[in-house]
């Protein structure tokens, strides 16, 4: 019986996962590298739930109950007694592995660990834990409270029981799951990121302006956001790391990250979270 959920990382994915888990009735602990960041994640959850109350998606009582089920902090000791811990730290393999190594001694033998990685192989991350059979990929989409999908990715050693528990948890969150094999980018990012990368090439080669490219895809292909706006929303640093994983993992030049994407990341213009990407949000 899964009741206590841990979430590592209070950024846009972590706080979204904590948000939906608390609303679904789970006890949730969310951590980040320091208390200030963890508290900032909690503030984001409060603001997003408040918006849901105003739009009458949830009741005021559900909001208050969910906030009462959430705790935040900066130490792994908070995960004591957790049934499922979801790692949602930055998309850097060495960082995720270090976190997983630090996490394991704090967990009971039955606890399951999931990673929200958007592209790093599950089998490789599992090898940094003491429980590869109880390790699985649960890839949430951004913004988590709105998007219906969770990709479930089994590593080579993931047990059927672990998969069933992750699936039942996804169901209780009110989300649908799609099962993907452990190949670079899984399903969503294998398809979505080359589209975004191609949009950046389209800009780089002067085929269209930022506005023209986004308008073309919004109105011409019925996408809710244009690809460059979506890249800013995901984070250009995350887009670049996913393209690098596809490029290296599939060894095909068609996945070469656009030099303009690399340049923006080098400039620190990584999108909405810093106020500047293909658009200026300041
Ligand atoms: N929390 C709670 N509710 C939120 C929210 C959040 N963080 N963000 C948006 N919403 C709600 C709004 O309140 C609004 O609710 P109603 O429909 O009840 O009015 C609804 O979502 C739509 O929001 P807005 O009206 O503010 O704006 P919008 O209509 O432009 O929609 C969007 C925003 C849902 C983000 C939409 O533009 C969209 O679907 N964009 C594409 C998102 C996408 O493709 N995500 C996947 C990215 S890929 C990924 O995540 C994987 C990866 O590894 C990179």
Automatic annotation (TrEMBL):
Q: Which residues form the 3-hydroxyacyl-CoA dehydrogenase NAD binding domain?
A: 4-180
Record site: Important for catalytic activity:
139
Binding of NAD(+) occurs at: 9-14, 32, 91, 96, 118, 142, 273
The family note in this entry says: Belongs to the 3-hydroxyacyl-CoA dehydrogenase family.
Tell me the NCBIfam families matching this sequence. Answer: PRK05808.1 (NF004474), PRK07530.1 (NF005715)
UniProt cross-references to PANTHER family, sorted A to Z: 3-HYDROXYACYL-COA DEHYDROGENASE FAMILY PROTEIN (PTHR48075), 3-HYDROXYBUTYRYL-COA DEHYDROGENASE (PTHR48075:SF5)
Gene Ontology molecular-function annotations: NAD+ binding; oxidoreductase activity, acting on the CH-OH group of donors, NAD or NADP as acceptor
The 3-hydroxyacyl-CoA dehydrogenase C-terminal domain covers which part of the protein? 185-281
User: What is this protein's record name?
Assistant: 3-hydroxyacyl-CoA dehydrogenase
| One Pfam family here | 3HCDH
GO biological process: one example: fatty acid metabolic process
Question: Could you tell me which species this protein originates from?
Answer: Rhodothalassium salexigens DSM 2132
Identify the keywords attached in UniProt to this record, alphabetized: NAD, Oxidoreductase
